[in-house]
Amino acid sequence: MQVKEIIAQAQSSGKARFSFELLPPLKGDGTDKVFEAIDTLRDYNPAFIHVTFHRELVKSTPMPDGTIERHIDRHRPGTVGISAAIKARYGIDTVPHLICGGHSKYDIEDALIDMDFLGLDTLMALRGDAMKGEPHFVPHPQGHAYAVDLVRQISAMNRGEFLDPEEGVSHHSNFCIGVAGYPEKHGDSPSAEEDLLRLKEKVDAGADYIITQMFFDNGKFFDFVERCRKVGINVPIIPGIKPLSTLKHLEVLPRIFWCHLPEELRRRAAVCTSNADMRKFGVEWASEQSAELIAAGIPVIHYYSMGRTDNVAQIVQNVF
Ligand code: FAD
């Protein structure tokens, strides 16, 4: 089933569900850790699973003749493969992320064809961030500058429009498309209003649902949804919740993800003196956030797990 249908079903049944995000394995690692993370949650009946896509790095390797070889390296390749493996093993709808960064539109077309053949019929269309060492996001010379262009390419393929079509072929995809939304504004955007209009462009181009950046104050999410509806964004908006799990998160997450930590959270987190304390508090705060979102009628809550799901399991036990 596609994610838009899963959300619609949860909405009409009145029973909230949860989904979560995983990372593909590090290069050289097998599938065990990813499967363990899913095993922890499978009995709670997750609605769907997202798998992140990781940007390449440029690596410089000194050669025996004294020259430097520069080549592309990816620490976590295999997003499409692991997504298909998860779907085949667990029967849970799995959503690979796809980014513009580092890809030509021709690479993207080939990746979409693989996903279509593998039965991965929902995907998350993203721009991606700047490559390490670059001050800003730089698109591939034959690629897309913004996620909206990727959404347009996917929508075109859904209509049977390929970049260089072969004669006499008629198959076309039927992808359901997720995109990212930012309750507290994307870091590059000059204003919340402009960011919202850019989000609307993605929806107008064919996005079927939105997953939000993490937020720790539900008020920011409720306000965002209201602003979206006012400008005519009518697709489902799924809140993205990150359970705090290390002391460093208090400093790192607001900086990297442009989200604010409410005073009450900082006050209550101040008693944590170890990562174990913070992991426990993270479950408590995320459970409170989730309970309030469910009470407000949100059909699906999406959890950012970073690959360890014991804390997500505790939250699900607490509130679903
Ligand atoms: P866009 O929608 O393209 O927006 C990027 C910026 O450009 C925004 O400031 C927007 O306002 C502006 N903008 C958009 N269109 C235009 C336009 N036409 N003209 C001018 N400005 C414009 N990153 C990864 O690398 N891999 C992942 O797997 C991944 N998963 C994510 C999942 C979620 C749920 C979220 C919220 C983020 C994820 N990210 C991931 C991070 C994401 O790639 C970054 O936040 C990135 O900086 C923006 O991506 P986007 O798709 O929102 O970009």
Structure, briefly:
With 320 residues, the chain is an alpha/beta fold. The chain is 41% helix and 17% strand. The mean pLDDT is 96.
Question: Over all CA atoms, what is the radius of gyration?
Answer: 20 Å
CA-to-CA gap between the ends? 22 Å
Which molecules other than protein and nucleic acid are bound? flavin-adenine dinucleotide
Largest sheet: 8 strands, parallel, barrel
The total strand number stands at 10
Q: Tell the overall outline.
A: globular
Q: What count of helical segments does DSSP give?
A: 11
Mean pLDDT: 96
What class would the helix/strand composition place it in?
Answer: alpha/beta
Strand order of the largest sheet: 1-2-5-6-7-8-9-10
**Which regions contain 5 or more consecutive residues with pLDDT less than 50?**
none
The ordered string of helix (H) and strand (E) elements is HEHEEEHEHEHEHEHEHHHEH
The CATH C-level class name: Alpha Beta
Structural domains: how many: 1
In CATH terms, what is the fold-level topology?
TIM Barrel
Helix content: 40-55%
State the CATH architecture: Alpha-Beta Barrel
Strand content: 15-25%
Polypeptide structure, described:
With 320 residues, the protein is of the alpha/beta class. The protein has a single domain (3-319), classed as Alpha-Beta Barrel (TIM Barrel). The chain has eleven helices and ten strands. The protein has helices spanning 3-13, 32-42, 79-90, 105-117, 147-158, 192-204, 218-230, 249-257, 263-269, 275-295, 310-319; strands at residues 17-22, 49-51, 57-62, 68-73, 94-99, 122-126, 176-181, 209-214, 237-241, 300-304. An eight-stranded parallel barrel has the order 1-2-5-6-7-8-9-10, surrounded by five helices. It has a two-stranded antiparallel ribbon with strand order 3-4. The two termini are 22 Å apart. The mean pLDDT is 96. The structure holds flavin-adenine dinucleotide. Flavin-adenine dinucleotide is lined by residues 52-53, 55, 97, 99, 126-129, 146-148, 180, 186, 188-189, 195, 198, 202, 211, 213, 240.
